[in-house]
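DM from R.C. (forwarded with permission)

"hey, sorry to bug you on a friday — could you get me a structure for this? deadline for the figure draft is monday and I only need the backbone to look sensible"
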Amino acid sequence: MAETFALKVVTPTGIVFEGEAEQVTAVGRLGEFGILAEHINFITSLVPGLLEIKTAGGDARTWVVSGGFAEVRDGAVTILADSAEEPSALDLSRLDAEMAEAERRISEASFYSDEYESAEHDMLLALAHKQASELKSTSR
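My reply, with the result:
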């Protein structure tokens, strides 16, 4: 059996997950990262992307997070997510429109503007929704 660590995933609306995990994978500003037991202490910001957890029982859980922070401290992991959506709760009918709108906003915004940053966030979130929809369709 793999080593485990305490994990808590929290959003402004409450605790999404609390328990033992073998592995966590998330997306930070510099790219995807993974956490295993006995990981070095660190804190990083999260960008929109998939949060994947392999639980102590071997189950896999996935959420789309819209940003937040991940902290590893003294062997325990806390994810403070702005929001966390399960793939089963996504509205796939809006996916193409969400992608098109984000692309339009990026193309029209000045690179150093707040609008560009907001549009980039929305594009990353749309891409995460697309990844989650692909997971959702393969798990049927």
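R.C.: lifesaver. The mean pLDDT is 90.
me: no worries. The first strand starts at residue 5 and ends at 11.
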